[in-house]
Design a protein that fits this description.
Layout: H1 2-17, E1 28-36, E2 47-52, E3 55-62, E4 68-74, E5 77-84, E6 99-104, E7 108-110, E8 115-117, E9 121-127, E10 140-144, E11 153-157, E12 163-170, E13 176-180, E14 191-194
Parallel strand pairs: 1-7, 1-8
Antiparallel strand pairs: 1-4, 2-3, 2-5, 5-6, 9-12, 10-11, 10-13, 13-14
């Protein structure tokens, strides 16, 4: 009995002196600025998120009256974009979408280049056809102009008649269109076209 009591006391003492480190999840704070290209001044009140092809992370920021924004707890990694989110209606007075490709370091503060946005926007419309000149339905068409030095991005899916309309695109530069047919459509591979 005395042996059991001494063993228990030694065991408790050993447990009390062991330090177990808790895992710390690495996150980054993103601090940046947005400029309104229409006025040359700050772009205020713009919501900005951290997004990837699979969707957006929970990290959200919004520009203040000076055009500055901060996004806390941004997930680390590459292939992220900082995406502005106007409403889907794209009404007058709202900023068009913009993006800036970034690689987020595992810890610390990231200061990406200035993002420019505009209230002047347009819609690209068209029709996607297959090799027999038939309308191609359900094709995802993406418009972006980062290769032309711009920051416009948006997409739309074609209707039953093959038509699409991609709204809310900042004007001023050309766009690169990418058509991605659904795998089940038998339409072949991705097609790219400068516009």
């Amino acid at each position: 009995m005395r042996f059991a009591a001494v063993s228990a006391l030694l065991l408790c003492g050993a447990l009390a002196s062991v330090a177990v480190p808790l895992p710390v999840l690495a996150t980054t704070t993103i601090q940046g600025h947005m400029t309104d290209t229409d006025t040359g001044g700050p772009a205020a009140g713009v919501v900005i998120k951290v997004c990837a092809a699979s969707g957006c992370a929970g990290s959200v920021g919004q520009t203040d009256s000076n055009g500055n924004y901060e996004i806390d707890n941004a997930p680390p990694g590459g292939a992220w974009s900082l995406v502005t989110f106007p409403t889907d209606a794209c009404t007058a007075g709202e900023y068009a979408r913009a993006h800036e490709n970034v690689t987020i370091p595992p810890d610390g503060v990231l200061n990406p280049p200035d993002i420019t946005v505009t209230r002047q926007k347009a819609t690209i419309e068209g029709v996607v056809r297959d090799s027999q000149n038939r309308p191609a339905a359900g094709v995802n068409v993406t418009a972006e102009n980062s290769e032309q030095g711009g920051d416009g991005f948006n997409y739309a899916n074609t209707g039953a008649d093959g038509s699409y309309a991609i709204p809310c695109l900042p004007i001023g530069r050309g766009y690169f269109l990418t058509a991605n047919p659904p795998r089940t459509a038998g339409l072949g591979q991705q097609m790219d076209s400068p516009f």
